[in-house]
Specification:
The structure holds 2 protein chains of 2 kinds. By secondary structure, chain A is of the alpha/beta class. Chain A has one domain: Rossmann fold (3-Layer(aba) Sandwich). Helices cover 36% and strands 15% of the residues of chain A. Chain A contains 4 helices and 4 strands, in the order βαβαβαβα. Chain A has a 4-stranded parallel β-sheet with strand order 2-1-3-4, sandwiched between helices. In chain A, α1 packs across α4. Chain A starts with 22 loop residues before the first strand and ends in an 8-residue tail after the last helix. In chain B, a hairpin with a 2-residue loop joins β1 and β2. The radius of gyration of chain B is 36 Å and the shape is globular. In chain B, the strands form 16 sheets. In chain B, strands 2-1-5-3-4 form a 5-stranded mixed β-sheet, sandwiched between helices. In chain B, strands 12-19-13-14-15 form a 5-stranded parallel β-sheet. A 5-stranded parallel β-sheet of chain B has the order 29-28-27-33-44, with helices on one face. By secondary structure, chain B is an alpha/beta fold. The chains are: A alpha/beta, B alpha/beta. Chains A and B meet through α1, β2, α2, α3 and α4 of A and α17, α18, α26 and α27 of B.
């Protein structure tokens, strides 16, 4: 393992060229998590930078948790739920939407770029879309560079 | 067994192994090219070279695929010398085949960007895979190497095409450079095996998991296409299957089952469009069926969701949909019911994929958007620019060369139009399965004239033979919700029939007593799965296991070839006892498929099933990072660390038993309510049937006759009598519901009837409140006695039809019917579904009573779906005149000296015509019951914008509410006819039965919990709760009145909306507590941190970051 790439926060000094962001994705169990599984069964390749955290519903994610992640060094955070109208819990995803709006406002207070946080909808049948969202987010964060909170 | 050391890792391999196997056991990846597990080692490419230190011999560089492993060997797979050698090999390969993708990737992985050697631009790297597969696996030797050194050449025997080659295509398949090897050996082209899931649009292997959602999710061999099963050769799949699961000897088995009832649901087939030669399917490549188009639109389809035409894989710009292909014609006088909507859906999705600019034209006769919410969907399609062209397409032609298709048709204004399309989609209808005759014969059930299974309006799930029931399109073409409902109705019939046998074949599973672990320090066992090569082929599993051993509280870690196998379950149980494990973490696939299995395993060993956590290192790692093994290994460690971090904070949870009150409240005593009550009583449950009127029967009391001749009043009498006789059914007439409290399994309801209030307890609720006929405000209704509704006409015709009699001054009377009165307008945009068939029923009745009476039906679309279509045909044959009007040019009704006049703009004539009428009959809408609102509030269930009740899921849960234990049937759901209402009602009886048949139900413990000390009663969480499970309560503390929230555990589903709303951290969902999620976040971010208190602002340098 000579050419090991360190994916987590340790590579803070890396230039943007080699910068490997660390992104957390809160995935609802019924749609997004299943969509991620389908991307897997379909063998759709996407960058390795994302770590999925399973939640029952996108509406379960407390804004503080997202802020905690971003201020402790995550380069980006995704919150992914079911498409509007498809929520397993009727309208938990709509609550997530309102919260996402609030989170976006809070990012300013922490001098974080709004692009570091994203709310997305991915259904259980959308493996390709899941992979696409991952790829886009990684590219976006690579452009932004490492989180200011991750530098020592 | 032999023992070797691979880069400091000791491994054990069986005698006779090659080095490559030993390296694989160590979890080390080295590049290979000419190696194939099912073929003999060849040692041609030399990419797999390693440094071998054998006792008593000088170190040497050897090809790992062909060099034997020997006791005591020390192998270096990534030493400087090895890497240098590999790079030279890569340069040589790159020189020979610089254009081959696989060679470029291998070279790039080794850090070789270019070659110093002159490039040959060949397409053969002499790996010999094709030669070996042909000889060893296919037994052919149709291709081989001739010549030596620079004259070495891949060619068939004697350099000629030869009959030895059977064109299996294996050589092309294995070739790493993508060379079409078979063309050397034969002039034939291998025919791809059509993939049945994508209706043959793309090729598939002869062994596959049929589709991602297949149940069971296992690979199966297509014996007709399998070379091994046809000729005994190949057998590659058996070699590569790590689980040794391939069994070519499996034979079809005949099982004998002793059953009390049978449900027939063999489904349908789509119409074979080749029969309609004029439409060109099978002749013109750009004419496809809607099923093919459906697959093309799908993300899991042949083009991964890109909308391409199969012929040239180009994006179409103009698409035509042709409706009624194999429906509504002389040979099939029925409507397939679903095609209008699927064409509309496909047009919308195609536009979503290809953009607004895509032209989508739907050629139709009547647009049958009759289902719940369908009319609104149709309107949306029109807004999105889908064009609907009313005409039956006579033929499709093709312009040679461009393969563009043309449609010539006569527009409604009598003008000839010619349109060109890139793609034509045929909306093929439903027909009975091919085997229908054999099925009918074997089961002794009758078929109707269209060869569908016969069923009656009043017994919609019964076949002609007792004990045999029917569900799905086998009895009539139908959409998904109707299929789901009919299946439930069939289940209800079976449940009643086999009431006494219920539960007699069940043996309850007994688990050992649960070990108390709450006070113990976490002792975590980690099991990392290879999943054959699915994980281990990418991720270095031994390294992950080694890493796991360094994680806090992990006391045991191991790897398994398949963690889900039966023997591993036993192993997990052994290790739990051996190491006193109190938490188990499995790093393998997705919890969506395997969590229940592992939870059960640890439960069998006395651990609470919730002391389990999974890390998904297959679906979300090895499968999606196949070309980045190092990064995938690192990610796997991260995912495992996150799982361990959460596992440390898991607590035992217990499902809460809820005792079920074995009775059901049925609200509404019409046909639906009566049917539901009888269905419940039939299963042995008490039913409380509550009706607001003084007698039972509801709308059925006004139905005098039916299209198919069945007698509704006889049926009403029979039902009423049966209900009276049944002591399980408790009827309350003239009754209202005062209040409903409680939830699934345990409701308390107050019913007031005749000044008396009764309180009942019950486990479930069925809503069957029906609908009402719209009182028209238009067309002189209420002002003119001879303007009546269809329901009023039916009463008149049944009572005394003498008003139709011929008089001296008027040789024939004239009846004009107007459709869509109060439906499909801006106030009520929905279609009332039943009025077209009702109008035709009454028109036919008039024609039967008085053939010389003129009947004219003014309509917008005739929506006689299913077998009702044949009555539409019958009506036209009997001289009923159908004239179409547009929504913006509605007919007008007036009365002058000559009597009633109806004026309507005739589309074909292009002018307004006046029709004298003795009677104007309005097909009035079916409107929602005004009482629905109040009931919805009592039950905390939603209504849709039209005032009908809103089900849990339009397609899949049409008669359930999202609230457990509450069900919905009949016209309270949406407008529907008698047969449909009965089907739904019977279905709800079955659904309620799934609850009432149990003594207790175990409620999922992963729900909300209030930390009482922290809650200050701010009530922020109350409104957002989607299930209204949280209430604000007052309590006394130290003489003060305080507030806090309370969770109704029977209603809460554990979505956690409350948890994310609470500013105090006073409410959480078990298993997803903020601390648990936070631990995962921290574990993801700081591979060296596990305790939140260790965290400080900013990031510290890693203290003891292990190197792997």
């Amino acid at each position: 393992m000579e050419e090991q790439t360190i994916t987590a926060g340790a590579a803070a000094t890396a230039t943007n060229e080699q910068f490997e962001p660390l992104i957390l994705a809160f995935c609802c169990y019924w749609c997004a998590y299943a969509g991620a599984d389908l991307a897997g069964t379909s063998r759709i390749q996407y960058p390795t930078n994302v770590r999925i955290i399973r939640v029952q519903c996108s509406g379960m994610v407390h804004p503080n948790l997202v802020i905690e992640a971003l201020t402790k060094g995550a380069d980006g955070v995704l919150m992914i739920g079911c498409h509007p109208g498809d929520c397993h819990y009727l309208e938990g995803n709509l609550r997530a939407k309102s919260r996402a709006d609030a989170i976006s406002l809070m990012l300013e207070d922490f001098a974080l770029e709004p692009e570091r946080f994203r709310l997305e909808w991915v259904s259980a049948a959308e493996g390709p879309r899941f992979a696409q969202v991952m790829t886009e987010m990684v590219e976006q964060i690579k452009k932004l560079g490492p989180s200011p909170f991750r530098a020592a | 067994m032999m023992h070797l050391t691979i880069n400091d890792t000791r491994v054990e391999v069986p005698d006779g192994s090659k080095l490559l196997q030993a390296i694989g056991v160590a979890g080390v990846k080295i590049p290979t090219l000419c190696h194939h597990k099912a073929l003999t080692p060849y040692g041609a490419c030399r990419l797999c070279v390693v440094e071998v230190h054998a006792p008593g011999r000088p170190p040497s560089i050897q090809a790992a695929c062909s060099y034997p492993a020997l006791e005591g060997m020390n192998i270096l797979t990534h030493s400087d010398r090895v890497t240098r050698t590999r790079r030279i090999v890569a340069e040589l390969l790159l020189a020979r085949c610089p254009d081959a993708e696989v060679v470029r990737r291998i070279a790039a992985d080794l850090g070789v960007r270019d070659t110093r050697i002159r490039k040959k631009h060949d397409d053969c790297i002499y790996c010999g895979l094709c030669v070996r597969v042909c000889e060893e696996r296919m037994g052919r030797s149709a291709i081989g190497f001739s010549g030596r050194g620079p004259r070495k050449k891949l060619e068939p025997p004697f350099g000629k095409h030869n009959p030895i080659c059977w064109t299996c295509g294996a050589c092309n398949f294995v070739c790493p450079t993508g060379k079409s090897v078979s063309t050397l050996a034969t002039a034939n082209t291998p025919i791809p095996i059509p993939n049945p899931f994508n209706v043959g649009l793309d090729p598939g292997p002869a062994i596959s998991i049929l589709y991602p959602q297949a149940v069971p999710n296992k690979a199966v061999i297509n014996p007709d296409q399998c070379i091994h099963m046809s000729f005994g050769d190949c057998g590659i799949c058996r070699e590569v299957c790590e689980a040794k699961a391939i069994d070519y000897e499996q034979k079809e088995e005949t099982l004998e089952l002793n059953v009390g009832a049978v449900v027939l649901s063999p489904g349908y087939e789509i119409f074979d469009a080749r029969i309609k030669k004029e439409l060109g399917y099978g002749r013109f490549p750009n004419v496809i069926t809607a099923l093919e188009f459906e697959r093309i639109l799908s993300a899991s389809g042949p083009y991964s969701g890109r909308v391409l035409r199969p012929f040239d894989k180009r994006e179409p710009k103009r698409i035509a949909f042709i409706q009624c292909v194999g429906s509504r014609d002389a040979d099939r006088d029925y409507c397939s019911s679903v095609c209008c909507m699927y064409a509309t859906k496909e047009a919308i999705i195609a536009k979503e994929h290809l953009g607004e600019g895509l032209q989508c034209d739907i050629y139709f006769m009547d647009l049958r958007a009759f289902g719940k919410g369908f009319e609104q969907y149709y309107l949306r399609a029109k807004e999105l620019g889908v064009r609907y062209i009313r005409c039956r397409v006579p033929m499709i032609e093709e312009i040679p060369g461009t393969r563009t298709l043309t449609i010539k048709y006569l527009a409604e204004n009598d003008k000839k139009v010619l349109q060109e399309y890139d793609l034509v989609v045929l909306s093929v209808g439903m027909q009975p399965p091919k085997e229908v005759k054999a099925i009918a014969e074997r089961f002794g059930v009758a078929l109707n004239p269209f060869s569908f299974c016969s069923a009656s309006v009043f017994k919609p799930a019964d076949s002609s033979r007792e004990g045999i029931y029917v569900a799905g399109p086998f009895s009539e073409p139908k959409d998904i919700p109707e299929t789901v409902v009919q299946a439930s109705a069939a289940a209800a019939q079976v449940l009643s029939l086999l009431k006494d046998a219920r539960g007699t074949l069940i043996t309850p599973k007994v688990y050992p007593p649960e070990r108390e672990v709450a006070e113990e320090e976490p002792r975590i066992g980690v099991f990392v799965c290879h999943c054959g090569t699915n994980i281990a082929g990418v991720v270095n599993v031994p390294a992950v296991v080694q890493y796991a051993q360094t994680l806090p509280n992990v006391v045991y870690a191991e790897n398994n070839l398949y963690t889900c196998s039966n023997d591993t379950q036993e192993r997990i149980k052994e290790k739990i006892t051996e190491h006193r494990l109190n938490r188990v973490v499995v790093a393998s696939c997705t919890p969506r498929t395997h969590e229940p299995l592992f939870r059960n395993t640890i439960r069998e060993e006395g651990l609470n099933p919730y002391l389990f956590e999974m890390a998904n290192i297959r679906d979300q790692c090895s499968w999606v990072h196949m070309h980045e093994p190092d990064k995938a290994t690192e990610k796997s460690k991260d995912l495992l660390r996150m799982a361990v971090a959460k596992a440390r904070l898991l607590e035992p949870l217990r499902s809460r038993p809820l005792k079920i009150k074995k009775a059901c409240l049925v609200i509404g005593g019409g046909l639906s309510g009566m049917t539901a009550a009888l269905g419940l009583a039939g299963q042995g449950f008490d039913a409380y049937l509550v009706e607001k009127d003084e007698e039972l029967g509801g709308h059925l009391r006004h139905v005098r006759y039916l299209l198919n001749g069945e007698k509704p009043q006889d049926e009403l009498r029979r039902l009423t009598e049966q209900i009276k006789q049944d002591d399980k059914i408790h009827v309350f007439t003239g009754a209202t519901i005062e209040g409903i409290e409680g939830s699934i399994g345990d409701f308390r309801t107050r019913i007031s009837a005749r000044g008396e209030t009764t309180e009942i307890t019950h486990g479930a609720v069925i809503v069957a409140t029906g609908a009402a006929e719209y009182r028209p405000k238009e067309y002189l209704y209420g002002q003119d006695q001879e303007v009546i509704t269809q329901q009023e006409l039916e009463q008149r015709l049944a009572a005394d039809a003498s008003f139709l009699a011929v008089e001296a001054k008027r040789p024939a009377k004239s009846v004009v019917m107007i459709q869509c009165v109060g439906s499909r307008d801006s106030e009520r945009p929905y279609c009332s579904r039943v009025c077209c068939a009702e109008a035709i029923k009454n028109a036919l009745k008039i024609k039967a009573l008085s053939p010389q009476t003129h009947v004219c039906i003014l309509y917008r679309d005739i929506r006689t779906y299913g077998f009702k279509e044949s009555y539409y045909t019958q009506a036209r044959q009997q001289g009923v005149v159908f004239a179409r009007y547009d929504e913006d040019r509605k007919p007008e009704v007036s009365r002058n000296g000559n009597g009633l006049q109806v004026s309507v703009f005739d589309q074909t004539l292009g002018m307004t015509v006046m029709i004298p009428a003795d009677l104007v009959v309005l097909s009035a809408a079916m409107v929602a019951n005004p009482g629905n609102k109040e009931l919805a509030q009592l039950l905390k269930v939603p209504l849709n914008e039209d005032g009908f009740f809103l089900e849990a899921h339009r397609k899949l849960r049409p008669i359930d509410f999202a609230t457990d234990g509450v069900f919905l049937c009949g016209a309270a759901h949406s407008p529907m006819d008698l047969g449909e209402a009965i089907t739904q009602a019977a279905g709800t009886a079955a659904h309620a039965g799934t609850i009432l048949s149990r003594d207790v139900i175990d409620l999922e413990p992963t729900i909300s919990h209030v930390i009482e000390e922290k809650c200050d009663g701010c009530a922020y969480c109350v409104d957002p709760c989607p299930f209204k499970a949280i209430t604000l309560v007052e309590y006394q503390s130290n003489g003060e009145t305080k507030k806090r929230v309370q969770v109704n555990e029977a209603i809460c589903k554990g979505c956690g909306t409350c948890q994310a709303t609470c500013p105090k951290g006073a409410i959480f969902v078990w298993q997803f507590r903020p601390e648990q999620l936070e631990a995962q976040v921290h574990a993801a971010l700081f591979r060296w941190h596990f305790q939140p208190e260790q965290l400080q602002a900013g990031v510290q340098a890693p203290q003891n970051l292990e190197s792997s």
